[in-house]
Amino acid sequence: MYNSQGNNDSDPIAEEKSNKCDGNDFNTQLEIYQQSLQNSSNLASKIILHSVCETKEDCFSDDRMNKILNSAQSLIQFPAAQNIKTWRSSLSKITDPVKMFEKSIPRCEKCAKSQNYNGFDKFIRNVCKCETCLLEDSNDKPEVHTSKPTNNVEQIAREKSNKQKHIGDSKTDINTRTNWEYGTNENTCPQSNLDREEEENKAHKSNVAKITFKTARETFLASNPSAKRVLGVSRKTQGKFVSPMIAAQEKQEKNEPVVSDDRLKHIDSKMVELIESEIIDKGTPVAWEDIAGLELAKSVIQEAVVWPLLRPDIFTGLRRPPKGILLFGPPGTGKTLIGKCIAAQCRATFFSISASSLTSKWLGDGEKMVRALFAVAACHQPAVIFIDEIDSLLTQRCDSEHEATRRIKTEFLVQFDGAATGEDDRLLVVGATNRPQELDEAARRRLVKRLYIPLPDANAREQIITNLLSTENNDLTRQDMAEIAVLTDGYSGADMKSLCSEAAMGPIRSVPLSQIINIDRDKVRAVSVQDFKNALQRVRPSVSQDDLGQYVKWNNTYGQGF
Ligand SMILES: Nc1ncnc2c1ncn2[C@@H]1O[C@H](COP(=O)(O)OP(=O)(O)OP(=O)(O)O)[C@@H](O)[C@H]1O
């Protein structure tokens, strides 16, 4: 059926086989297989080819066999161009597809001699569990046949590029060649040809084995490159013991960020790293519409800081923006939201730190931290430094003040004065406090704009309810929401959020306990007015009227006056 010249013109068996098959169907399958060689994993390709061979075993014409042989060559990933000749000539003599694959199986000598050897099966499963192979597996760095020592992974990568080239060759073969010219046109003695072929075949098989078989470790590392990391450092047999702790430290030192900006030259690189990872806020940007009410505060902020930060060329001289603003008022009224919104509107980097963490968490390093914070912010301009609870940093001086706290405070004032002194600097400090009366005079003087952020009025509360319910299934009308807004006089923005969360739990609580795990999301009923009425019993306002009086008084004395 398939003669050594590869000429099948007069082969009646081949013709008969060809007629038996549905040519289109078979060609489609082959095409899928050939495509899979380029796009799928080797294993996937092998499986596809296996099914092609299995189902169409009795209908291979020579032309189709040519195609399969070409595909098989691509599949096996030739180790080196010089082996192509031998490989093709040996494959061209095989007519039975199963034998053809057997021949292409990378196998050890022991397996090859074994009576029970079922190469095709192992080829499909890509395993060989004989002792020789297991031994080879444990020496996880096989030698390769090139002059330069390389590892298996590099070798495979190189072979992949050879493969691409080879696939191109194969396609040409399919279209233009009917003869296996490499194997048949050689003008040499047949016996010596056979011997040489045998030797070359052996060498080739061992090369294929090295490439096709990967150790478990190599396979694992190929799919998990990060697994290459080891605890501590890797050691040689004669190597000195290195503690993982020291190694980790050294590694950290090596990984230190390159200090590219002069302003960071004298700053502790670990602090820079910490600020960049923990203090720079990368949360969702806040828009003005997200902040309910507070219209006056918003318009002052827009005019005083947002526009100047966006157009520093216009806002010069007397129009130069303040370096710092203070937002004061009861807790949970949206001061942090405003800080975030300023940063988002100015497309600025938002640094958010709580002053109390400087005096507690960073006590001892607080001074350095302040210096580092301003230096990093200067490198990330435009930047907004938001300091929550600024009162705990800039309290009025007293005799009992802790030395460390006093030093942090002094450093803050020094940095604040030194910051944004250049014409092009775009740095804004936003301080927030619930206890403005505790701020010292120096702080008040520096935070030029002092804005009262009061409790939300009825309209703002209604807007907060509307915003929060927009993502929940509810059957509240506008009038219901307005009524709830009236009932929540004295609630802060944060209180309103708690109230809505509590009400949203109503429908869940009405689901019988036995169904809570399996119930369909759509079957949970909508949030109702009654849920809000129940929630109002549980969530009470957190700000007292007495406190409010103090804010109003301070606002009248030091505030912006609205
Ligand atoms: N005006 C508002 N508009 C919309 N939501 C608000 C408003 N005020 C408060 N909230 C809600 O309350 C939450 C807390 O607000 P935020 O942290 O800004 O308050 P704060 O004034 O900074 O509080 P604190 O003084 O306790 O730090 C916000 O995440 C938001 O959901």
TrEMBL record:
One of its GO terms (cellular component) is chromosome. Its main location: nucleus. Pfam families: AAA (PF00004), AAA_lid_3 (PF17862), Vps4_C (PF09336). PROSITE patterns: AAA. InterPro entries: AAA+_ATPase, AAA_lid_3, ATPase_AAA_core, ATPase_AAA_CS, FIGNL1_ATPase, MT-severing_AAA_ATPase, P-loop_NTPase, Spast_Vps4_C. GO terms for molecular function: ATP binding; ATP hydrolysis activity; metal ion binding; microtubule severing ATPase activity. Residues 1-21, 139-203 are annotated as: Disordered. Residues 1-10, 175-193 have a biased composition (Polar residues). This is Fidgetin-like protein 1. Residues 321-457 form the AAA+ ATPase domain. It is found in: Nucleus. Belongs to the AAA ATPase family.
